[in-house]
């Protein structure tokens, strides 16, 4: 059975870091999603996201789309199919609203991974260290989506696997266990 590891949680908890690690260590491709937000330093179009204008964003066909801290984000059916052509096990990084939609649409094919940290105060530091502009950090941390994604939504309790991503070494160990469960034959 094909599976999508849906990596979700609040901003700065390490979703993209986990997705990149799964690709590097286990060759698990990431579904690239679309956004209207500006690029961060070092990001590349077609690698980190498909960066869109509001007009071009509206032209795609989305499995789900959301507004997050004032920008639009969406994952397309085509993106999912393209990733499944490469591998039976793929990952995607979504906010919690998107993760709920993936469970409704893909059912058992969606493996939900909710990332959290012990103290939400460290998230601000992580975003600063990542090179985010102060203005962007402040508006994001004030957004209702940020507050919402700090807590596992009720619909995902008992469905999601939770990793407290404070210690990267422990996170690596837990990811190894998850991949072994989902991809036993190839390890
Ligand atoms: N376990 C960890 N310990 C310390 N720093 C970490 C850890 N995991 C990730 N980071 C760092 O935290 C920063 C934010 O990580 P990342 O970009 O992966 O978060 P994210 O959840 O994808 O954020 P966003 O939703 O804003 O895109 C990065 O600089 C990353 O290197
Ligand atoms: N529901 C969706 N959420 C998405 C998608 N692509 C990214 N995201 C989430 O948006 C926020 C902000 O991302 P950032 O890269 O600007 O920090 C974060 O929670 C991502 O997981 C999507 O297609 N659908």
From TrEMBL:
Which reaction equations make up its catalytic activity?
A: GMP + ATP = GDP + ADP
Q: Which UniProt keywords apply?
A: Kinase, Transferase
The family database entries (InterPro entries) matched by this protein are listed as:
GK/Ca_channel_bsu (IPR008145), Guanylate_kin-like_dom (IPR008144), P-loop_NTPase (IPR027417)
> Keyword Transferase on this protein?
yes
Q: Which GO terms describe its cellular component?
A: cytosol
Q: Which residues form the Guanylate kinase-like domain?
A: 2-180
Q: Which GO terms describe its molecular function?
A: GMP kinase activity
Q: What PROSITE patterns does the record tag this protein with?
A: GUANYLATE_KINASE_2
Keyword Transferase annotated: yes
- What is its biological role? Essential for recycling GMP and indirectly, cGMP.
Family note: Belongs to the guanylate kinase family.
Tell me what this protein is called.
Guanylate kinase
| Record organism | Secundilactobacillus mixtipabuli
Name the lineage: Bacteria, Bacillati, Bacillota, Bacilli, Lactobacillales
